[in-house]
Specification:
heterodimer, B: alpha+beta, globular
């Protein structure tokens, strides 16, 4: 019975794959904006309620946690690959209206500040050479 | 591994169908063959496949040094005609790849893909004047990937730049 339920759940999750893909692609294109649940739901032609339920069934994260994580991870890449951008520039690029809120979110996720992250990666890059 | 020839593609514009995997690269490699086969079977069934014309690629949506391995997203993709507007499958999705890319063409063995990616970022991008663009890179298989550890194949590693 449990195998059947898991198999059914797997089947239902499979049919959500495309919805999740489209939502992720929408988020990818709009990382510089404040992305609302309503925007994502509209992009996949679902109500906010239904999209939220599907995402929760699919992922261990909420959609807001997912968006926040992707933005922070992308910003981390930019910290290292584009030294000419200030922390403020990068915060703005990912839709943060204040540098302080970006830095707080970054530290909570990576356990170090954006500046410490940048410096640590620069050192690692030069060590590689 | 020989140094690649680097070229700039100023305006890549491709429509692709893809299947996306979520999980570590080790797990992805266990599933990638069946994913490519499913994509090819669908393209043939729907008439999207044109011998010698469709480009096959692997798209890396996340950076493995930053994203936890369980959260990594990797897509296997195949280019299709621009007039394709819908895909009637629950998993296969359509998207566009656009913009400027720096492309390193490599002649590499199966064991040299990591080295090739390392070269593109650490040896080329970080030492060049090019500014990375915030979207995903991908590797495109110009010739079929080798089936053994001895042979080489031609692969383009495409890095998005401004």
């Amino acid at each position: 019975m449990k195998a059947m339920i898991n198999s059914e759940r797997g089947f239902h999750l499979k049919i959500y794959a495309k919805i999740i893909n489209l939502a992720e692609d929408y988020i990818e294109k709009n990382l510089n904006k404040n992305i609302l649940l309503s925007d994502i739901a509209n992009s996949v032609h679902l109500s906010e309620y239904h999209f939220h339920r599907i995402f929760r069934a699919w992922s261990s994260e909420t959609i807001h946690q997912f968006i926040s994580r992707i933005k922070l991870e992308r910003s981390a890449i930019l910290l290292v690959t584009n030294q000419n951008l200030s922390i403020t520039d990068i915060a703005m690029q990912y839709g943060y209206s204040e540098t302080s809120s970006y830095c707080r979110a970054f530290k909570k996720h990576f356990k170090i500040t954006p500046m410490q992250f940048r410096l640590a990666r620069i050192v690692k890059t030069y060590e590689h050479f | 591994m020989e140094k690649p020839i680097i070229r700039f593609e100023n305006n890549i514009k491709m429509k692709v169908i893809y299947l996306r995997f979520r999980g570590s690269y080790i797990e992805f490699r266990k599933h990638s063959k069946s994913m490519y086969e499913k994509l090819l079977d669908y393209a043939v069934k729907k008439g999207f496949y044109q011998e010698g014309k469709n480009m096959v690629m692997t798209i890396y949506h996340d950076n493995p040094f930053i994203t936890k391995s369980k959260d990594l997203r990797t897509s296997v993709a195949m280019s299709v005609n621009d007039d394709i507007s819908d895909v009637d499958d629950d998993e296969i999705t359509l998207m566009n790849i656009e913009g400027k890319y720096a492309v390193g063409r490599f002649e590499i063995k199966l064991t040299e893909y990591g080295e090739a990616w390392n070269y593109m970022y650490h040896e080329w991008l970080f030492k060049s004047d090019s500014i990375p663009r915030d979207t995903f890179p991908f590797e495109m298989y110009v010739t079929r990937p080798p089936k053994n550890y001895k042979d080489t194949s031609t692969t383009d590693i495409c890095i998005p730049i401004e």
